[in-house]
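Thread: quick sanity check before group meeting

JM: Hey all, I'm pulling together slides for Thursday and realized we never actually wrote out the predicted structure for the chain we discussed last week. Dropping the sequence here so it's in one place. If anyone has concerns about the input, flag it before I start.
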Amino acid sequence: MKPTVLILCTGNSCRSHMAEGILRAAAGDALDVQSAGSKPAGYVHPLAIRALAEIGIDISTHHSKHLDEFLSSDIETVITVCGNADQVCPMFPGQMNRHHWGFDDPAHATGSEDEQMTVFRRVRDEIKRVFDAYAAGRRDALAQPALP
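JM (edit): ok, ran it. Output follows.
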């Protein structure tokens, strides 16, 4: 069974979904990647969907979920991508790792749609750098033979 990585944010509408899509694409079938929020917004932000579509990742079928849906799941790693989620994050059964990598919330971007997309692209690219590196490290670790 592949390890489950749960990416948490407050609203589960932008950053956590972008990170989920990017990590799922980067990790291939090595990890089961999910995302959730402590106070789910109930939707995935259309500009987050668009920003990922620009780099060939489709998150249009994602939906906003509450972290409570995963409390009885075997979560190996929890990654929080906003400060509030990091503060309210519970421990999950079987959890071995926890990381916090905070990113600006692009949902707070103002101005025209083009100006907002500039913010979404910047945050997407920051998330992609971090999660591509994380996926590469995980793939390398999973490929290593277990020590006797």
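AS: nice. DSSP finds four helices and four strands in the chain. The chain has one domain: 4-137.
JM: adding both to the slides.
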